[in-house]
Specification:
The structure is a single chain. This protein is mainly beta and about 325 residues long. It has 2 domains: about 35 residues; about 280 residues, Glycosyl hydrolase domain, family 43 (Tachylectin-2, Chain A, 5 Propeller). The strands form 5 sheets. A 4-stranded antiparallel beta sheet has the order 1-20-19-18. Strands 2-3-4-5 form a 4-stranded antiparallel beta sheet. The chain has a 4-stranded antiparallel beta sheet with strand order 6-7-8-9, with no helix packed on it. Strand 15 and strand 16 form a beta hairpin. The termini are far apart.
């Protein structure tokens, strides 16, 4: 004999449907709240300009901006395809008297490593020296190391030296450079491009951001410590670092976002900080697809420079912002 299963009551079915709708609404509300929260944390554009519009064709038309430094009311910019340094007035006007291309002085001394361009730059305020960064170069017996070039106040080359840290991938080396004075000593901070300072899948897996700390010993830059960025940081890569007092900012190109945190005054440690996405379009899509360099301008403003967008239809919406310099406001709790 076949026993029929009792039919579900209409009341039970209705209750299940109501529960599903409530759950869907709750999920939707959480998604909207998350989106609204991210939008509130977005950097706010103050002004921006194409670098070529500021300096003309004096440095060519291919300007792969990779690093920026705010100094004396102007922005100093390096490109990873040019040996020159570009200076533009912070007002971002084509008529600014500061706008120029500094070509001659950045040539390295005879015998120094030749380089087509630089990834980032830093400034030693105590001695008024400048430093530029070469991402990676081959070393014997194998592997790679980043190189730092040093210049005096007039940007005349003083020499260069390798950083005391082995890299395994020539295309995922050191991307960011910053100078920090601490307890009477000067240190260079070098930011790895990939997570765990690696390339490939491992380098793209968030949670392994590293900034290595170097101190000069004779003609060498010896690694003395490592700053571990928060494991919760969702960045797939890292492109630049800047420090102002106890505040530290780290930029990601792949994630199109800026992380801002606090750097301990006694230890090479940081807090959890806050992630600030770069502005998106009306559909929430990335438009700043090539942010490469960052520098503090004030307590709540940063300047960012963007690289040249890659070829391909998928990168078309990035072209309006590429090869440019952007001034952003970092939103605070009261904004």
């Amino acid at each position: 004999m076949t026993v029929k299963k009792p039919a579900k009551s209409k009341t039970a079915a209705k209750a299940k449907t109501t529960s599903a709708k409530v759950k869907a609404k709750t999920t939707s509300a959480k998604t909207k709240d998350k989106t609204a929260s991210a939008k509130a944390r977005e950097l706010r554009l103050v002004k921006e300009a194409k670098i070529q519009d500021l300096i003309g064709d004096s440095a060519g038309t291919r300007l792969e901006a990779s690093g920026v430094l705010h100094h004396d009311g102007a922005f100093l910019i390096v490109c990873d395809n040019l040996p020159s340094l570009i200076r533009v007035g912070s007002e971002l006007s084509s008529k600014a008297p500061d706008n120029e291309v500094l070509k001659a002085n950045l040539a390295q001394k005879k015998g120094s490593s030749a380089n087509a361009g630089y990834e980032d730059l830093a400034h030693d305020t105590l001695h008024d020296h400048y430093f530029t960064l070469t991402e990676a170069e081959p070393v014997k017996p194998k592997g790679y190391r980043a190189r730092v070039h040093e210049y005096d106040a007039k940007l005349r080359p003083l020499g260069s030296a390798l950083l005391d840290f082995d890299l395994t991938d020539a295309n995922k080396g050191m991307e960011g450079l910053e100078w920090v004075d601490r307890a009477g000593a000067g240190y260079l901070l070098a930011l790895c491009e990939g997570n765990q300072c690696a390339g490939g899948k491992k380098g793209r897996t968030p949670g392994g951001g590293r900034i290595h700390v170097f101190r000069r010993e004779g003609k060498r830059w010896t690694r003395t410590d490592t700053i571990r960025l928060p494991e919760s940081l969702p960045f797939e890569d890292y492109s630049s670092v800047s420090v102002r007092d106890d505040r530290i900012a780290v930029l990601s190109q792949a994630s199109s976002a800026l992380w801002v945190g606090r750097l301990s005054a006694k230890k090479w440690e940081v807090d959890a900080g806050t992630v600030h996405p770069l502005p998106t379009d009306g559909k929430g899509r990335t438009v700043y697809g090539n942010p490469e360099g960052v520098s503090w301008v004030s307590a709540d403003h940063v300047v960012i420079v963007s690289d040249r967008a890659k070829k391909g239809a998928g990168n078309e919406r990035f072209r309006a912002k590429d090869q440019s310099v952007h001034l952003f406001l970092i939103p605070g709790d009261r904004d």
